[in-house]
Amino acid sequence: MVNSLSGRFLILTTIFVMLAEVLIFVPSVARFRESFLLARLERAQIASLSLLATDMIDPALEEELLLNAGVYNVVLRRDEARQLVLSSPMPGQITTTYDLRDASALTLVLDALRRLVTPESELIRVIGSPSRDAGLQIEVTMHSDELRAAMIDYGLRILVLSAVISVLTAFLLFLAVRRVLVKPIKGVVAHMQSYAAAPEDSHRIIRPGAGVRELREAEEALAKMQTELTQALRQKERLAQLGGAVARVSHDLRNILTSAQLFVDRIETSEDPVVRRLAPKLVNSIARAVSLCESTLAFGRAEEPSPVLSHVNLAQIVDEVLEAEHLAIGDAEVSLAADIPPNLMLRADPEQLHRILSNLVRNARQAIIGSGQPGEINITASAGDSFWRIEVSDTGPGLPAKARDNLFKPFQGGARKGGSGLGLAIVLELVRGHGGTLELLHSDADGTTFLIRLPMGGLN
């Protein structure tokens, strides 16, 4: 209850209403004290009328009048002269005088608070203005006990009434909050839990219907998000099904093409000049088809495993990559070069880094050979403030516009005829696994340059 929104609202409302009542309590008690003293002055003035009507008054009657007025004596000031109208023996010395004629609100409040916190009995003088202009001033002397007791009784009644009002107000607000806020919020939570159980079911998408504007905006945002997520899940499911079908087709097609490749090897030994002339083209076509099937199967498997980071010497890995490429170049006019600081140590997965560089260098080599012109491939590296920079550049013909537009998209970013377009997609995935970035710096008639940035975090 306490940890719920409605429970906390109930407690806070009760506290704030009580605080407001306390702020009202002090002025109310001060006003009650003033009214009490003014009533005593008025009763004393009425008691003094009997003396003003006659010159003599019986002592017993005078005592009874003073007792009914609740004072010890009454002093009237008329025509600049003070006159003791009624009197009785004083039980002690007067300790405090209160003048109600020009008392400010602050003075009344402070006097009331002092009286509440002063339990000692005191003899006080009260000065006021007579009612109906019956003189210039009236003074009475009285005990403070009855005044303080009346103030305490009045204050307790005010506090009890404040508590009842606070509880009733808090309860009504509690019901209102539950109706207006808590119930709709619980409804939204229930919709979210229902949708989470089966996010692919569009019937579980929330339908905005809250009357409160802010809640309705939240429901509309949630409905939009759920709709987009449901569509994305359906698309993902369709792609997964399509991927499974493609993988099965590629697997079977690879087996068929591998068998065909064995037959082609025998055809190459034929003495027929036409067969011998067409056989290499057939071999190359089948080889490309097998390569496409293998790339598709490799890409369709589970995501690349997380890199196992260790300290590696970049120059050593680059030498291994370039050595393997030298064998693949054969008689083609492609030169390989590297400018790597011999002691440059990176924190990376050595196998994945080798695959990254091999893919980029292989793409550059194939582009240069495909152009029929000589060219050069160069790998450079340097250490920055927070990243290692590795650049792979070539002097090939550059990437076609279509390839640049779909550079890192699987099956769409192929730059050469017969390519699968998976190489750069795989490279990007491996680089991102290291927390780095892969960027095409430029690609034109003068060549192509890719930039790899790998973060230095955690080197030590």
Automatic annotation (TrEMBL):
Keywords: ATP-binding, Coiled coil, Kinase, Membrane, Nucleotide-binding, Phosphoprotein, Transferase, Transmembrane, Transmembrane helix, Two-component regulatory system. It is an enzyme of class 2 (transferase). Residues 248-458 form the Histidine kinase domain. Residues 215-242 form a coiled coil. Its EC number is 2.7.13.3. It catalyses: ATP + protein L-histidine = ADP + protein N-phospho-L-histidine. The keyword Lipoprotein does not apply. SMART domains: HATPase_c, HisKA. The chain crosses the membrane at residues 6-30, 158-177. CDD domains: HATPase. One of its GO terms (molecular function) is phosphorelay sensor kinase activity. PROSITE patterns: HIS_KIN (PS50109). The keyword ATP-binding applies. This is histidine kinase. It comes from Roseivivax sediminis.
